[in-house]
Amino acid sequence: MARLLDKYKQEVMPRLREELGRENPMSLPKVTKVVISTGLGKAVAESGSKVRESKRFTEAETQLTTITGQKPVVTKSKKSVSNFKLREGWDVGLMVTLRRKRMYEFLDRLISLAIPRVRDFRGLDPSAFDGRGNFGLGLTEFGVFPEVDPDKITYQQGMNITICTTARNDAEARALLTLLGMPFRS
Q1: What is the pTM of this model?
Q2: Is the distance from CB of 165 to CB of 133 less than 8 angstroms?
Q3: Which of 6, 39, 106, 151 is deepest in the core (most CB within 10 A)?
Q4: Residue 127 CB-density burial (10 A; 0-12 exposed, 13-18 middle, 19+ buried)
Q5: SS3 (DSSP) at 74
Q6: 51 falls in which pLDDT band (50, 70, 90)?
Q7: In this structure, what are the phi and psi dihedrals at residue 51, rounded to the nearest 5 degrees?
Q8: Per-residue pLDDT tens for 143-171?
């Protein structure tokens, strides 16, 4: 079983029961999924409609696969935007949705290994919740994950990470993520 899932069941659930005053364990907030996405705008600018053939695209795809353990889905543009030289239906990014065991393993690596390796890190922004209990953060490079070989990185690529919870509001979600070990700014 994933280490963070064990922590959730043994440490976090009892503390949340106490803090929120709920006895029913099904009413306690939990993490449902983690969505990792990256935009490949520079690859679109370089190669036009043949984005999948570009080196930037293949490198981002292999790195995202290495980090998550799951093959990413290609996202396509919904509209044509002439200022960006973009047509509707072109490949513009990659996305991975993690659930269950892989989700907890990714979150464990994110909290304990990747976030501490971010240069000049002063804590996560506590206002990055969406009002419904979901939290979003951005990383400027894939290299903070230990699975990625820094010698194989030729293009710096960032990613957005969204943590979706069953919390009723942002306060409950923040309590959950803080107990799981997310380092929020005070």
Answers
A1: 0.79
A2: yes
A3: 106
A4: exposed
A5: strand
A6: low
A7: -65, -40
A8: 777 777 777 777 777 888 999 999 888 88
